[in-house]
Write a structure and sequence with these properties.
This protein is an alpha/beta fold. The chain contains six helices and 15 strands. The chain has two domains: 88 residues, Elongation Factor Tu (Ef-tu), domain 3 (Beta Barrel); 143 residues, Nucleotide-binding domain of ferredoxin-NADP reductase (FNR) module (Rossmann fold). It has a seven-stranded mixed β-sheet with strand order 10-9-8-7-11-12-15, sandwiched between helices. Strands 1-2-5-4-3-6 form a six-stranded antiparallel β-barrel. The chain has a two-stranded antiparallel sheet with strand order 13-14. The structure holds flavin-adenine dinucleotide (FAD) and FE2/S2 (inorganic) cluster.
C-alpha cells in the first residue's frame, strides 16, 4: 500500500471562517453544533458552525473536555459535518449533544481520496459510508458516473442510500441477513461490477479492515486501482506519537487513505 498520488490535502476552497495553518496543527477550536440528524438507529450526523478546506477521506479530532479526543472522518467540509455511530463512551456522549452545544475540533488531517477517472465505484461499510458521500458529492459536481455499494448486517444498519440517490448515484445495497438488497457482503455485489464491460475506473472503499483487504484483493485481480481509508488508534493525529502505525506507515499522516489494487 502506498499513499495515493498527488497531495490530496490541496483541496477546494471553501467559505469563511478562514482556517489557518496554526489551526491545523494547533489547539482544538471550540465549535457549536448547528444541527443533529438521525441516519439510522445508532448513527447520527452533526453539522457544526464552521467550514474547512478539506477533501473527502480526511479526518478531524473531536474533543469533549474531561472525556476524550477521537478521530472522525469528515462527512462534509462546508459546513463541517461528522457522522457518528454510538458504540462506546465517547461516541455516545457525542450523540447527547444538541444544537447550541459546543465540541472542540482539530484538523482537517491526513491524506484523503483523489478522484481518478470519470467512472467511480464507492464501497462503504457501516459509518465508512459517510466520507464516501462527501466524495460522491465532489464527483457529482464534476458530472462523473458514481456507483455506490452500501453494506450492513441488516436493513436497520444501512446508511445514506437516499442521500446518495439525491446526488444522482446508482445505489446497490447488501445485507448479511438478506433483509434488504442483495444477501451477503459488499464483495458479493462488487465482483460482478469489476468483471463487467463497463467496469469502474477506480474503486474507493471505507469500512472495517477485513472488508478493505477483501476489496483490495478483488480490485487487484480485476486490474482496477483502489483507494482505501484505513483506521487505527490515533492520539496526536499529526504524525508525532506513533500510535497509528500500520504496515510501516503512520496512518494519520501517510493515510488514512492508501492506494491499493492495480
Ligand atoms: C481515521 C478514523 C476515522 C474515523 N471516522 C469515524 C466516523 O466517521 N464515524 C464514527 O462513528 N467513528 C469513526 N471512527 C472511530 C472513532 O474514532 C471511535 O473509535 C469510535 O467513535 C468509538 O469510540 P468510543 O470511545 O465511543 O468507543 P470505544 O470505547 O472506543 O469502543 C467501544 C466498543 O465498541 C467497539 N467498536 C468500536 N467501533 C465500532 C463500530 N464501528 N462498530 C461496532 N463496534 C465498535 C470497540 O471495539 C469497543 O468494544 C474513526 C476512526 C479513525 C481512526
Ligand atoms: S496518531 Fe500520532 S502518529 Fe498518528
Amino acid at each position: 500500500m502506498t499513499a495515493p498520488g498527488g497531495d490530496a490535502r490541496q483541496g477546494r476552497a471553501v467559505a469563511a471562517p478562514a482556517w489557518s495553518a496554526a489551526d491545523r496543527a494547533g489547539l482544538p477550536r471550540p465549535l457549536t453544533v448547528r444541527a443533529v440528524a438521525d441516519e439510522n438507529h445508532r448513527t447520527r450526523t452533526l453539522t457544526l458552525d464552521a467550514a474547512v478546506d478539506a477533501v473527502a477521506g480526511q479526518f478531524g479530532m473531536l474533543w469533549l473536555p474531561g472525556l476524550d479526543e477521537k478521530p472522525f472522518s469528515l462527512r462534509a467540509a462546508d459546513p463541517l459535518a461528522f457522522t457518528v455511530a454510538a458504540v462506546g463512551p465517547f461516541s455516545r456522549a457525542v450523540h447527547r449533544l444538541r444544537p447550541g452545544d459546543r465540541i472542540w475540533f482539530r484538523g482537517p488531517f491526513g491524506r484523503g481520496f483523489t478522484l481518478a477517472g470519470v467512472d467511480h465505484l464507492m464501497v462503504g461499510g457501516g459509518y465508512g459510508t459517510a466520507p464516501l458521500h462527501f466524495l460522491a458529492a465532489d464527483a457529482a459536481r464534476r458530472g462523473d458516473r458514481v456507483r455506490v455499494v452500501i453494506g450492513a448486517r441488516t436493513s436497520a444498519d444501512l446508511l445514506m442510500a437516499d442521500a446518495f440517490r439525491d446526488l444522482g448515484a446508482e445505489v446497490i445495497q447488501t445485507t448479511e441477513d438478506g433483509s434488504a438488497g442483495t444477501r451477503g457482503r459488499v464483495t458479493t455485489a462488487v465482483g460482478p461490477l469489476l468483471a463487467a464491460a463497463d467496469r469502474p475506473d477506480t474503486l474507493y472503499a471505507c469500512g472495517p479492515h477485513g472488508m478493505l483487504a477483501a476489496l483490495e484483493d478483488q480490485a487487484r485481480a480485476a486490474g482496477v486501482p483502489c483507494q482505501s481509508a484505513w483506521e487505527a488508534y490515533m492520539r496526536c493525529g499529526i504524525g508525532i506519537c506513533g500510535s497509528c502505525e500500520h504496515g510501516g506507515m503512520l496512518l494519520c499522516a501517510d493515510g488514512p487513505v492508501l492506494a491499493g489494487g492495480a
